Predict the structure.
Amino acid sequence: MTSPVPPRDRPDQPWRSEGAPPPPPPGRKMPGGWGGLLLTALIVYLIANLVLSFFNGDEEPTIAYTEFSKQVTSGNVSKIYSKGDAIQGQLKKEAKVPGGDDKYTKFVTQRPAFADDNLWAELVKDDVTVTAEPVVKERSFLANLLISLAPMLLLVLLWVFIARRMSRGGMGGGMGAFGRKPPPKPVELEGGRRTTFKDVAGIDEVEGELNDVVDFLKNPDAYRRMGARMPGGVLLAGPPGTGKTLLARAVAGEAGVPFFSASASEFIEMIVGVGAGRVRELFAEARKVAPAIVFIDEIDTIGRVRGGGSGMGGHDEREQTLNQILTEMDGFSGSEGVVVLAATNRADVLDPALTRPGRFDRIVQVSPPDKGGREAILEIHTRQIPMAGDVDLGQVARTTPGMTGADLANLANEAALLAVKRGQSQVSGADLSDALEKVQLGAERALVMSDEDRRRTAYHESGHALLGMLQPGSDPVRKVTIVPRGRALGVTLSTPDADKYAYTEKYLRGRIIGALGGMAAEQVVFGVITTGAESDLEQVTNLARGMVGRWGMSHKVGRLTAIPSDAQQAYGLSAAPSTLDAVDGEMRRIVDECYEEACRLLRDNRARLDSLAGALLENETLDEAAAYLAAGVSRTVT
């Protein structure tokens, strides 16, 4: 059973990690978020203005010149300073501002140009001191400038403070979402339990290859003394669902080292250069806690061959990110203790610079498990599921060839869901069987068919089943049903008793004959052909094309590969037109021969066909034993 995936420390961090030192406590969040920020800015602005008003509150009043003359005449002026027509002065005694309640001692006034009075005589008579320096001391230009800019400076300081707090993770990724941020510390896996090889089953040969990595991380000194160098990277290649990610985590768990995992697509951003920066950040974090493992999932997202015209030369974001990964891996040395693991199901499209010696110089093929491996995987995924005594996981493993670990985990979960729906306390063998039907054949559809359609469907499926029973060496028929499932009106399930890794021409021809059995039965019984054979013809076409164009099973085409195995490559680019014409002709010949053989066998065994179709019409679904009994064919175990 797979353990939970560790979380990410922040939204823009494209990796997860486990087994590394815990992160420091995050900075305190600014209360209220952006609203709190705006409110704080407003308060700072108001306080700054209040402070400025306090400094400017003792400014001297400007009085009328008549009021000044009156004070001079009354002998209440002690000293004045004049510059041009502007006059500053100070009274001996406090006076009241005309027209108001305020009082003043120092004052400012302006002498009119047309004034023709004896001001100087009055001043001399009253012993008024005419000073050489201003009576009212004014602030300097620099002081006025600083005071006027104080509110703005305070806001800028507040903004910088908030931005720094946000960059440390205090308020999320609102600011600088595309920029570089201080790298966070890895997070600890919840619960503290690490994935080990005990949680992985069915791929023992792969474990043997990865044990070298585990041993190197545990005992690096022994390898250094021998002068051995650990591979710079290990590439796990295989179909989806075979457990590549789980294997990488198990390697880190077995070695007891920090594990950094990231999907290659999470490095890609709209802004060019961000992905490369994230790669540098990830590898820098791994070096800090070395020995460690860096795992990049679906590396073909950014690791495809460069220069294919998918981007803008060498400057697009994907290629920038790939170049950074190449640089980081090339900079590793054995003393750093950092091992890079990557997973892909498209190893054929990777850039050669990525798989050259010194980078991903070890490629490990992760294939679907065999029968023993499937049984071990089922045992792992049913640890937490209460199983009834009639459950035979070995039998389930025998009837599930080609299934991956993810498929088997889904099968166990579907069986548990069925048991809950049926109100059971344990999962029974029937639950597993029904769950397997749902996974392999599709969910049942509540479709009401006419009697004519049911009869035609019964003969169609009986044709598939009967030819599968009669063909020597063909896969045994496990179940036949005319209950609509998925897009099909009926289904015939055939699986081998043991895993097969190589197929003979006779076996493949038998597969084609069995696939054409439904169409042949409709032709023999009703004299018509319906659209129900669409999926059968797709299967027949793929088999015939492979026999002729890829596997050398045609004397006319010869022992060569005329059709590429990569479905994404354009058909016909790898062969001459005359060769493709020969492939087309041979495909038609093989399919026509198989169809004639299917019709002949059904005519010769018409009684068995009618018996099997009648049993299907009566019971709708027949398991293996009932189907062979209804057809009158003995089951031969190969």
Q: What stands out?
A: The two ends are 33 Å apart (CA to CA). The CA atoms of residues 17 and 260 lie 4 Å apart. Residues 1-5, 27-32, 169-191, 309-315 have pLDDT under 50 and may be disordered. The chain is about 45% helix and 10% strand.
